[in-house]
UniProtKB/TrEMBL annotation:
UniProt keyword annotations, A-Z: Cell membrane, Membrane, Transmembrane, Transmembrane helix
Source organism, top-level taxon: Bacteria
Keyword Mitochondrion: no
Main location: membrane
Transmembrane segments: 21-41, 47-69, 90-119, 139-164, 223-245, 257-281, 293-315, 321-341
Compartments in which it is found: Cell membrane
Protein family according to the UniProt entry: Belongs to the UPF0718 family.
The organism of origin for this protein: Ruegeria arenilitoris
InterPro entries linked to this entry: DUF318, UPF0718
UniProt cross-references to Pfam families, sorted A to Z: ArsP_1
Lineage of producing organism: Bacteria, Pseudomonadati, Pseudomonadota, Alphaproteobacteria, Rhodobacterales
Protein name according to UniProt: Putative permease
GO cellular component: plasma membrane
Its membrane topology: Multi-pass membrane protein
Length: 342
């Protein structure tokens, strides 16, 4: 009897959990389309399915690469970027920010630890700005949705933004700014996944524990990418089908700097994540969004996403937070303008 009385509760909890997942949103969206516009249901589902299949090869390679980096302990390479002279640290931090296999959650305790251990804020800021913008999986997903020129442009912009932020902070620190940047330091990560201290071992399969980690990362990241990209392509299909092209063109289309600036400030609160954004931007560009505005939107959103801003605010003092946001937004606008010109 105890099992019978507990079963409805367990079923209810399971259903409640499913309703909060991207899969539930996908089903709900497709059901609504079938009810409200049945004649367009096949077009929406076919568009999303074809786009997901096309990106599937990138998803597979991205998941394999990320799992390999995690299992081999590649985080140790990032830690080495914060050793030596300050100029060298800034250069390496900006570069490794685009290669670091950290999730957005892991970056915060990693940076908090670096600041608490005395790493210069300039180098930390370089890593902080470049890391949310690009990593190997994001590069491949962006290439699959928007093409390699856009993906490479975003990677270059990530490193350039890191360098810009790092050297700008170094200049300000020499004027007496940003003394004691941390509010306080708590070493625990926000999801228990703080930076690992593994030794680097490229042939990870030689250790059973690392083989287990590789399999776990492959399954977790594969499911994560699959569900979010499936949702992204369903949303892109809706965007292409129902949002008037002239509306997009009026807001963020056309030439000049104004659409790029608007896209940066729209991207700040509207950004979802680095895996959902490329397909959505592909749809917006088909509707008339300029390439420069798309670049500006993507960079500004990655730097100023709500989880990232909340974590930064809780970690550092207000002046450092303001510098982080200001550097991110100005860098996004500059990247959009340069990408549009080139």
């Amino acid at each position: 009897m105890a099992e019978l009385t507990q079963s409805p509760k367990a079923v209810g909890q399971t259903l409640s959990g499913l309703l909060k997942t991207p899969w539930a949103l996908i089903v709900a969206i497709l059901v609504l389309v079938a009810i409200l516009d049945p004649g367009n249901w096949v077009n929406v589902t076919t568009f999303a399915a074809k786009a997901l299949v096309h990106t599937g090869q990138y998803i597979l390679f991205a998941v394999l690469l990320l799992s390999y980096l995690k299992a081999s302990g590649a985080e140790t390479m990032v830690a080495r970027a914060f050793e030596g002279r300050e100029t060298r640290m800034i250069l390496l931090a900006a570069l490794f920010g685009g290669l670091a296999p950290f999730c957005s959650c892991e970056v915060i305790p990693f940076i908090a630890g670096l600041l608490a251990l005395g790493a210069p804020l300039s180098a930390v800021m370089a890593f902080w700005l470049s890391s949310p913008l690009i990593d190997p999986p994001t590069l491949l997903i962006t290439a699959g949705a928007l093409g390699w020129p856009f993906a490479i442009g975003k990677a270059v912009a990530a490193v350039a933004l890191g360098l810009f932020g790092g050297f700008a902070v170094r200049f300000l620190m020499r004027q007496g700014a940003f003394a004691q940047p941390l509010r306080h330091y708590e070493p625990a990560g926000c999801c228990g996944c703080g930076p690992k201290k593994d030794t680097l071992l490229w042939r990870f399969w030689q250790e059973p524990e690392r083989r287990v980690r590789f399999r776990r990362e492959f399954v977790q990241n594969g499911l994560f990418l699959l569900k979010w990209l499936a949702l992204a392509y369903v949303l892109e299909a809706l965007l292409v089908s129902y949002v008037p092209a002239d509306l997009i063109a009026r807001l963020v289309g056309g030439e000049g700097a104004l659409p790029i600036v608007i896209a940066a400030f729209v991207g700040m609160p509207a950004y979802l994540n680095s895996y959902v954004a490329p397909p959505l931007l592909a749809g917006l560009m088909e509707q008339g969004m300029s390439a420069g505005a798309a670049m500006s939107f993507m960079i500004a959103g990655a730097v100023s996403s709500i989880p990232a801003m909340a974590a930064v605010w809780s970690l550092v003092k207000p002046r450092v937070f303001a510098a982080y946001i200001g550097l991110g937004i100005s860098g996004a606008i500059a990247a959009g303008i340069l990408f549009q010109l080139l």
